[in-house]
């Protein structure tokens, strides 16, 4: 059974970068008939906030990314302790007593001497007596995982063969001096306990993976497969990290981006498929393949997303938006939707365009004699899309006006605007009474 997980820390709002990681995991799970676990990595009790967890669940829900399984790391401390004891028993987890200041000084000396700033394992040389002395001074240990100092290899589903020599890494601290776990051991423990089969995450975790594979093995488990995707960068290749606040899903939503536009964009950017508007997550699942994710950074360009959003709206059938139109108090039916959708950048623009139909709006009279003639020549109802052409032909014949000189004054009188949806579609919606009133300079 395929099980993948998305493991956000509830220390902030989801931004487009981590939403993309969530989406890739979700698509992978659905494509393989597997399960998607949402795991809240809340071991950092100072920075984790329940309101961020709520926001994460809501934002994923907005995107349509539903989880099959849910876990909170803070509720799994017993399992993490058992894993830690196992590592201590096998000598892979060892106590260290250096203070941060001592470690910093040591690191500076190493750098000054041209050596890599890797932890020197001084703590491994402490005798029982040394440790007792340090404890008597009030020092509490933090605990490091003893790496094998050998080459760790895996076949990454995106990067291909990867080899990392853990001799070049510091033994990672798994437990802090105050007894709290850092991210690494809970993550591995939970991946084992939930039988995670693939870990799909950003390439900023590649180095962690080498250490984690060693921890999986030290716990007697088999490491899952890994897929490290390139990170999302801005349109010009700049890191998104500085603008994360402005790229939260919350803001996209407030800005009126459709969730399907966001997922269409995030599913395809950085892949060998073209970025295009998709109508459903099922469509994206059908087209998903982890092999399509490229090695080059994926780009996130708000302007491109905005265009995609407009395209998506332009392609939506009336049935897909009927309920939303109704709740916006718009009862123009399919005819209204078809008339205005090519003019939408955001769905909320419909309300403004609805005033072109229902009014009241103040007409602008640019060429009074022409408009007076046009009012006289308004055909009787019933009206349809052919009415506009029959009427404007008659006005042209009576006034000699043509092209812009004919259409522009009519648009200004009927809509009070320079631009807008096609008049042949709007005219039957506005109706004869209101059209006549506007041509007679009445606000209607
Ligand atoms: N909580 C970790 C993070 O947000 C999860 C990384 C992982 O997927 O293992 O970076």
Give a structural overview.
- The chain is of the alpha/beta class.
- It has 4 domains: 1-71 and 230-315, Rossmann fold (3-Layer(aba) Sandwich), CATH 3.40.50; 79-175, Glutamyl-tRNA Synthetase, Domain 3 (Glutamyl-tRNA Synthetase, domain 3), CATH 3.90.800.10; 318-358; 368-439, Arc Repressor Mutant, subunit A.
- The chain has 19 helices and 12 strands.
- The protein has helices at 16-31, 50-63, 77-89, 100-112, 128-136, 184-193, 206-218, 249-254, 259-268, 281-287, 302-314, 318-327, 333-340, 349-358, 368-376, 387-399, 404-415, 423-430, 432-439, and strands spanning 3-6, 35-40, 69-72, 93-96, 142-145, 151-156, 160-165, 173-175, 198-202, 225-229, 232-234, 298-300.
- β6 (151-156) and β7 (160-165) form a beta hairpin.
- It is elongated, with a radius of gyration of 31 Å.
């Amino acid at each position: 059974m395929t099980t993948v997980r998305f493991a956000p820390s509830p220390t902030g709002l989801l931004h487009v970068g981590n939403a993309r990681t969530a989406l890739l995991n979700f698509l992978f799970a659905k494509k393989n008939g597997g399960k998607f676990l949402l795991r809240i990595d809340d071991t950092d009790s100072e920075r984790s906030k329940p309101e961020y967890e709520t926001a994460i669940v809501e934002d994923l829900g907005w995107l349509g990314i539903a989880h099959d399984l849910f876990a909170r790391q803070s509720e799994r401390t017993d399992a993490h302790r058992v894993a830690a004891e196992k590592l201590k028993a096998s000598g892979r987890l060892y106590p260290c007593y250096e203070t941060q200041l001592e470690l910093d000084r040591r690191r500076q000396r190493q750098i000054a001497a041209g050596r890599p700033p890797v932890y020197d394992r001084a703590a491994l040389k402490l005798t029982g007596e040394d440790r007792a002395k340090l404890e008597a001074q009030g020092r509490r240990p933090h605990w490091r995982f003893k790496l094998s100092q050998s080459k760790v290899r895996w076949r990454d589903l995106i990067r291909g063969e990867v080899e990392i020599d853990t001799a070049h890494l510091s033994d990672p601290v798994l437990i802090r001096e105050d007894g709290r776990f850092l991210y690494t051991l809970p993550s591995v423990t939970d991946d084992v306990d939930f039988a995670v089969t693939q870990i799909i995450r950003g390439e900023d975790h590649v180095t962690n993976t080498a250490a984690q594979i060693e921890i999986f093995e030290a716990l007697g488990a088999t490491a899952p497969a890994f897929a490290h995707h390139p990170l999302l960068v801005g349109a010009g290749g700049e890191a998104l990290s500085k603008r994360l606040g402005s790229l939260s899903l919350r803001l996209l939503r407030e800005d009126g981006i459709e969730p399907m536009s966001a997922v269409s964009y995030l599913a395809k950017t950085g892949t060998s498929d073209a970025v295009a508007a998709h109508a459903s997550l099922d469509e994206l699942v059908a087209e998903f393949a982890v092999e399509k994710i490229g090695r080059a950074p994926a780009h996130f360009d708000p302007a491109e997303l905005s265009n995609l959003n407009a395209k998506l709206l332009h392609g939506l059938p009336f049935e897909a938006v009927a309920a939303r139109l109704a709740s916006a108090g718009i009862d123009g039916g399919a005819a209204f939707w078809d008339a205005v959708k090519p003019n939408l950048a955001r769905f909320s623009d419909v309300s403004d365009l609805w005033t072109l139909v229902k009014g009241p709006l103040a007409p602008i009279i640019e060429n009074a004699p022409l408009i007076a003639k046009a009012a006289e020549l308004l055909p009787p109802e019933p009206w349809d899309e052919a009415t506009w052409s029959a009427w404007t032909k008659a006005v042209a014949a009576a006034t000699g006006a043509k092209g812009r000189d004919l259409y522009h004054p009519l648009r200004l009188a009927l809509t009070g605007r320079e631009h807008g949806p096609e008049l042949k579609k709007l005219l039957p919606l506005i109706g004869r009474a209101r059209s006549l009133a506007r041509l007679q300079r009445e606000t209607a």
